C-alpha cells in the first residue's frame, strides 16, 4: 500500500472514532460536528482501493453536507434547541442529491466521466461557499462568543477553508499534471487530518463549545453580582428593546451562558427576570403618585414595557393581581 493509502486509512479511522466520541456528549453542536467528522472519515476511507467499491454509495454526494454542517454547527452554539430545526434546511440540497445518486445507481443509469468531474467541482465550490459563509457569520456575530471561543472557531473555520481551497486547486491541477495534482491532494488530506486532530485536542482541553455547558458556566461565580449591577445601577431594564444579546455583550458571555445562569442559578427566565425589575419600577412610581393623571400605560412604557398587553400579562403573572387591584391596595395602605 502506498503513502496515500496509509494516510487515507489513518485519517478515516481517527475521524470515525472521534465522531462517536462527539456523539457521546449528547450536545447539539458536538453532534453536528461529529456528523461532519464522520463524513470526512468516510470520505477518506472511500479512497482506499479495497474499500472504494463498498463505500461508494454511502460516500458519494456527502460533500454537499460538509459545508452546511459547519455552518449549522456555528448557528447551533447560540441557538435554542427548537430553533435549530429550521437551520437544517441548509441540508436539503444534500438530501436531494443523495436521493438522486441512489436512484441513478439502482437504475444503472450511465454517467460520463466529464459529468462526474463537473459535479465534483460544484460540490467543492458549494462547500467553499459555506466555508466563507461560516467565516463571515463569525465575523458578524463574534460578540456573541467569548474571546476563547472566537479564537477556537476562527482556527476551526480557517483549517476547514484551507482544506477546500487546496481541494479545488488539486481538482484543477490534476487534469493537466496528474503527479502534482496527487501531491496537492496529499496536502488536502493532511489538512483534513489536522482538522480532526485540532478537534481531538479541543476535547482534551475541554474547549467550552464541545463540553456540557455546566462545566464552563459554573466558572462564573460573580455572574449574579455583575447582572444585578447592570440592572440596579445601569437600569438596563428600562430599555424596551432589551435582549439577551445586549446583556451577553456587557458581561462578555454567550447567550447560552446567560440563559443557563438565569435558569440554573436564579431559577427564572430572561423575560421574567427583566419584567420583574420593570414591575418593581412600576410599583415605585405608583406608590410615589407624583402625577395622579399619569396612566398605567404611560408608567408601564416608562418602566421598559413595550405594550399594554405585555405589561398587564407580566404584572398579573408576577403579583397575581391586575394593576387596578394593586393600586387599590396601595391606596388603602396610604
UniProtKB/TrEMBL annotation:
| Transmembrane residue ranges | 6-23, 30-50, 56-76, 88-112, 118-139, 151-173, 179-199
HTH araC/xylS-type domain mapped to chain residues: 225-329
Short name of any one Pfam family annotated for the protein: HTH_18
Q: Which PANTHER family match?
A: ARAC-FAMILY TRANSCRIPTIONAL REGULATOR
Q: Which PROSITE patterns match?
A: HTH_ARAC_FAMILY_2
Annotated SUPFAM superfamilies: Homeodomain-like (SSF46689)
* Protein name in the entry: AraC family transcriptional regulator
What are the recorded GO MF terms, alphabetically? Answer: DNA-binding transcription factor activity; sequence-specific DNA binding
Q: Which organism is it from?
A: Flagellimonas nanhaiensis
Q: What superkingdom does the record give? A: Bacteria
Arranged from A to Z, the UniProt key words for this protein are: DNA-binding, Membrane, Transcription, Transcription regulation, Transmembrane, Transmembrane helix
Instruction: Give the matching InterPro entries.
Output: Homeodomain-like_sf, HTH_AraC
